[in-house]
Design brief:
single chain, alpha+beta, globular
Length: about 250
C-alpha cells in the first residue's frame, strides 16, 4: 500500500471503460471501513454513474473533462440527516445544529474519501479530487437532491487512466513535519524549503501562463484571490446554515 501512496498522481483523463460492480463495491467497502468519529459514520457517499446525471454535475465542477469522462463519480457528504432521525426514533435528542458537528462530519467524509481513493488506485484505477465541490455546494445539493442536514464536502472522479502524468512536486518533509513542538520558519528556512519547487518545470509553466514574477503570486493573485475567497466563504457558510448545521 505504501508503494501505491508514493506513486499517487491525479488523473484527469479516463478511458471509456466501465468499472465492474465488484470493483465499485470493493472501493465503497474500503471507504466504509474508514476511521470515523465515535463510530457514528456521519457521512454519506453519493454514487454517480448515469451519463445524464454526470452531465448535470459537469458545469458545477467548472466543466472539467474528468467529470465528463469518469465512469464513476463519488460525492462525499457530511451527513447528520440519518443520525438525527435515528436519535429521534430512539428517544434521544441530537444536538447537531452547530459548526462543530459540520466540522466533525466533514472530517469523517474526507477520511472515507481517502480510503476509497487508495482502494481505487490499488485496483489500477485513477482518481482526482474535485476542489470545486465547496464552490458550488448549493447547486450540487439540488442536483443530488440532498436533504437538510447533508452537505457535499469533496468529490472523487474514478476511472481507468488515459494518461500517465509525472508525479506532482511536493515540498520536502521539513516543510510539514515538526517534532514534539512546532518549529517556526526563519527566512532562510523558507528559501531552502521552496527552492526546488520554485525552480521546477511546474513553476516555470505556471509563471509563463499567469505572467507573474513569483510562484507565490500565482496562488494569491490568480488562483485563490481574496475576492473569490471571501465570496465562496460566504456562499458556503450560507449552505451550512441552510442545511441546519449552524443555527446558533
Amino acid at each position: 500500500m505504501t508503494d501505491i501512496i508514493l506513486k499517487h498522481r491525479s488523473i484527469r483523463k479516463y478511458k471509456d471503460e466501465k468499472i465492474d460492480k465488484d470493483v465499485v463495491d470493493s472501493i465503497l467497502q474500503a471507504g466504509i471501513r474508514a476511521s470515523n468519529t465515535g463510530s457514528m459514520q456521519v457521512y454519506s457517499i453519493i454514487i454517480t454513474q448515469d451519463k445524464e446525471k454526470r452531465e448535470a454535475l459537469l458545469p458545477l465542477h467548472f466543466n472539467q473533462e474528468a467529470v465528463k469522462q469518469a465512469p464513476l463519480i463519488l460525492t462525499f457528504c457530511a451527513d447528520l440527516n440519518r443520525f438525527n432521525k435515528w436519535c429521534n426514533l430512539r428517544d434521544a435528542k441530537p444536538e447537531c445544529d452547530n459548526f462543530l458537528w459540520f466540522y466533525t462530519a466533514s472530517i469523517d467524509a474526507v477520511i472515507t474519501a481517502q480510503n476509497c481513493a487508495l482502494a481505487a488506485e490499488a485496483e489500477g484505477l485513477g482518481i482526482c479530487y474535485m476542489g470545486t465541490t465547496n464552490y458550488t455546494a448549493d447547486k450540487i445539493i439540488e442536483v443530488l437532491e440532498l436533504p437538510k442536514g447533508v452537505v457535499p464536502v469533496t468529490v472523487l472522479t474514478i476511472g481507468y487512466p488515459d494518461e500517465n502524468p509525472g508525479l506532482t512536486d511536493r515540498l520536502p518533509s521539513e516543510a510539514v513535519v515538526h517534532y514534539e513542538t512546532y518549529k517556526d520558519f526563519e527566512e532562510e528556512d523558507i528559501d531552502r524549503i521552496y527552492n526546488e519547487l520554485e525552480k521546477s518545470e511546474f513553476a516555470r509553466q505556471l509563471l509563463e501562463e499567469n505572467k507573474t514574477e513569483t510562484l507565490a503570486q500565482v496562488f494569491t493573485e490568480k488562483r485563490y484571490t481574496g475576492v473569490n475567497n471571501i465570496h465562496f466563504s460566504k456562499s458556503l457558510l450560507e449552505v451550512i446554515k441552510k442545511q441546519g448545521f449552524w443555527n446558533h
